[in-house]
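Action item from last meeting closed. Structure (56 res):
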């Protein structure tokens, strides 16, 4: 079975060295990469908080 690949929007983010080091540490503790941490944890959390603030 061949799955269709959809093109997803992309963005680039610059981080301060200290912030990146903190994200690397957190990702390493979870056994994942920084990109996975951003995609699976940080961004969804941020969106939930922003959505909650708009509703509140």
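Sequence:
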């Amino acid at each position: 079975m061949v799955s269709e690949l959809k093109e997803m929007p992309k963005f680039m983010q610059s981080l301060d060295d200290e912030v990146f080091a903190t994200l690397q540490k957190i990702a390493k503790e979870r056994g994942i990469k920084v990109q996975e941490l951003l995609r699976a944890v940080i961004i969804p959390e941020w969106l939930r908080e922003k959505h909650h603030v708009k509703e509140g």
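Note appended to the action item: The first helix runs from residue 17 to 30.
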